[in-house]
Amino acid sequence: MRQTDPASAAATSTPPVAVSFREAFGFWLKLGLISFGGPAGQISIMHQELVEKRRWLSERRFLHALNYCMLLPGPEAQQLATYIGWLMHRSWGGIAAGVLFVLPSLVILIGLSWVYVAFGEVSLVAGLFYGIKPAVTAIVLQAAQRIGARALKNRLLWAVAAASFIAIFVLDLPFPAIILGAALVGHIGGRVAPDRFTAGGRHGAAGKSFGAAMIDDDTPTPAHARFRWLGLMRVLLVGALLWLTPMAMLTAVHGWSHTLTQMGWFFTKAAFLTFGGAYAVLPYVYQGAVVHFGWLTPTQMIDGLALGETTPGPLIMVVAFVGFVGGYGKAFFGPESLFLAGAMAASLVTWFTFLPSFVFILAGGPLVESTHNDLKFTAPLTAITAAVVGVILNLALFFGYHVLWPAGLSGTFDWVSALIALAAGVALFRYRLNVIPVIAACAVAGLLVRMVGG
Fold first, then answer.
1. Between 358 and 63, where is the model more confident?
2. Which residues pair with 57 in a beta bridge?
3. Least crowded by CB within 10 Å, which of 19, 28, 150, 401?
4. Could you give the residue ranges of the DSSP H alpha helices within 370-434?
5. Which of 367, 94, 77 has the alpha carbon at shortest distance from 225?
6. Contact 344/260 with Cβ under 8 angstroms?
7. Could you tell me which of 355, 354, 322 has the C-alpha nearest to residue 244?
8. Taking the CB of residue 223, how many other CB atoms lie within 10 A of it?
9. Are 150 and 63 in contact (CB under 8 A)?
10. Is 162 or 122 the better-scoring residue by pLDDT?
């Protein structure tokens, strides 16, 4: 059990001073550069940094925001960052947090996509990815453990998590159905056994672990986060204009059937289908981008998924790879401007994919903030958090299967990847190292293995 000295206890009993926009901007930029491990790893990083270390907001407020983001289509980790940034520093704070969560990933993927299509398979990149993939598996497992330790406060919530895992792993039920089922359980449980569905557990327990937060359980909702019909209509109008203006310009300049226009429309639709994370929408993206439009080949799609898994940012950023390869291949700016075509397409599809997420948070945030002390709203969300633990465990098994048996169960077991994953797990669970040095060490190990093995 962790010992706390009196000076440390006194320090954590006082909430941190107000955080400036500049300081928050620096953190969001850092997060965008280190957000490996998919949504589970990213949410784990945010909890460790914002709740445990910096104490910018309390455990309960963090989980309440997270549960709302889990209900939305789109990348929940990016939406959570947007929500927290908005809660702290109004709309521009949310925009900065959400953009910086995505921007480093977009720049990196444009560069890697260019290397991929221009120079083919690069042994250096392949070796680095070989080591990173087992590390990602360990990171996701750690995230399941961390979120489970916070969310599964009693046997009933453990049962919800177990049922969620069985539903997705054994019965292959869709993620939205699991979320709706968990919400129903929470709704009923909040009436029958309200003490079992208190979000984040007791505040006293949370305070012993992390101390008083700048935005604590009982901190009044700031003025900008209170619901107003005028504010809701303003957000919806601005969001509609930000979508309609580029779409109208693309149609006027290039026509409706042009590649860029079709990419904008296609990924707008995809943005509303990403319930349950990127894996839920990948079949739709594959069918449209590969089969219908022919923007890239099946092999390129798989390689793009590998890039998305092993770069910072949301996994749905694989759409940037799809856009780059499609734009590069269509060469709609001429053969001398292939990179420009690819970069333009990647940026465009990123815009149309993530724009709805900002609208969801800035429009719905005030409604959510008005419910964080209302059990009839928090009980279903508490059950959803428990269900998400089972879903994350399933994701860890998915990663582990594809890393350890790359050719399927009938193929050879990759014992080198298993050793790298085991070493990453020991570093994360036993020695509690940060994600970045673990990722870096595993990447170097993978590169050395590939160099020695030829």
1. 358
2. 215
3. 401
4. 375-404, 415-425
5. 367
6. yes
7. 355
8. 8
9. yes
10. 162
